[in-house]
Amino acid sequence: MAGAVGAPVVTDSLAIETRALRKVYRSPPPGMTPRGKNGPVEIVALDGLDLQVRAGDFFGLLGPNGAGKTTTLGILTTRVKASSGAAFVAGVDVVTDGVAVKQRIGVVPQRPNPDRSLIVIENLVFHAAYFGMPKAEAIRKAQGLLDMMGIGDRGAAKVDQLSGGQQQRLMIARALIHDPEILFLDEPTVGLDPQARLDLWDLLLRMHGEGRTIVMTTHYMEEADRLCQRVAIIDRGRLLACDSPRSLKAQAPGGTRIELTLDGDAAAVAQQARTHSGVLRVDAQGAVLSAYAERPGEVLAQLIRTAEAAGRAVRDIHLAPPSLETLFISLTGRKLA
Amino acid sequence: MRPSRPPVSASRVFLALLSRDLRVARREIVSFLVRSTLQPLLFVVVFGYLLPKMGLVQRGYGAALLPGILGISLALSSLQSVALPMMADFGWTREIEDRLLAPVPIRLVAAEKVVSGVLQGVVAALFVLPVARLIMGPIDALSFAHAGTLLGITLLGALAFSTLGLWMGTGIPPQQIGLMFSVIVAPMIFFGCAYYPWQGLTPVPVIKYAVLVNPLVYVAEGMRGALTPALPHMPWELVVVALVVMSAVLWSAGIRTFERRAVS
Question: What is the ipTM of this complex?
């Protein structure tokens, strides 16, 4: 599905590289709460991020909201200024040569931001013109992309007449019309219905198959697992892990994650549970006890008995097979979404 | 790695951005003209036609009024042609992003907006001049002998107000824009020497010199120099220098706020 998962490196050339990338917002980024009473609030969005994306990779930036994914994309696409550190796209420094970077990239924003003063096809034709494409070629390519996106009959419509999903597809068409080397997508499937999401996945895999580097942010584990060759897990502006989904899952604390929600603090129960045979690892956070085990059926009964012996009732039980999600929780102690 | 398209020249991108704005402007030409010329033309109807007919205003007032009306239309249209789209462009969805991603320095995107504002100001002026003249009837002092000066003042005035539009459109928080239009634009029009010549303020020296910060004063006076040269007006050298300096100051203020909005 995701092409060559864990395939050998075909080329050494890097599509993207960041070194100790740091971003501090002195005023809150758009959409966040305004400044506090004691002057501007400082928000550290990126805290020394080092990333390497090989040319031709389908690369995922995975993390919860506020992890710094959008800020990273913003810097790489010249729309956000880094506070310190360096970032290169296709070997070009985004700070000193933003124009050359923009020449090589296509960007699909988190929220569709079409040019509402223009009709649908003009959104594509003018965008192509900004990249120097002759008009006849632009119109031909625009119609072809609209057809491919399943909105070929909406070219003359006003943008506001498109549904949210259609606007999203228009954004993808716009990001593709100038045939960029590297395609950036910021949470492209948020707000799409399940079928539209599957369609978009197919489309992205096709775009990747044509030789493009794709960098996508997401907070859906399944999406990263299905699409990406390599995934960087980031949280609070830092890189926690970066590898193929398969290797990352192998790094997850083995076995199935057993999550017990108790009626009180789980620390004492966790202490006891660590002595059980067959338990690989136990964490306690408040009333939630997380244990990892290869044979969850056997361990579960033991855990419940231990909890009850400690005077705690079990309110809820949840089992999760090894996944990027279990890795993320083991790395951060928090859930993704 | 995929080969990318050959680099495109900045001038070509500039023309593409401009043709986008002109496409939008052409589509909205009626609302554009109403927005920027209805108010000045209503003023012409009352003060250039009705009041003279009633004998409440001297017939010669039209000669002082016409250049000022031209100045107001030019100012409003250039200012709004830049400031209003900026509001939407940098609004919730940041519609301008597809232009910020064009492979040129983002200053060029701002400069293109200003040029588009200048062109729309010229269109508004070209529309208002004959209509106002028609409403007012013949004006003795009116002369078209200085068409070159007229054009030059029109372009410079439009430049000053387009750069003001850039600054207002990007520097003022969207929720305060209505207030700022009332606080800045209304006084600018009434103290812009549009409805009376600057010379006429001599009895009130405080106001006479305070209004010199107002770019509309120079546009209106420049228009007087070009259209009714026989009547008192500011020397055109002063008008040109003032408009050039004001445009430069407003551009440097506007580009700073534009860049702050464009790159976070």
Answer: 0.89
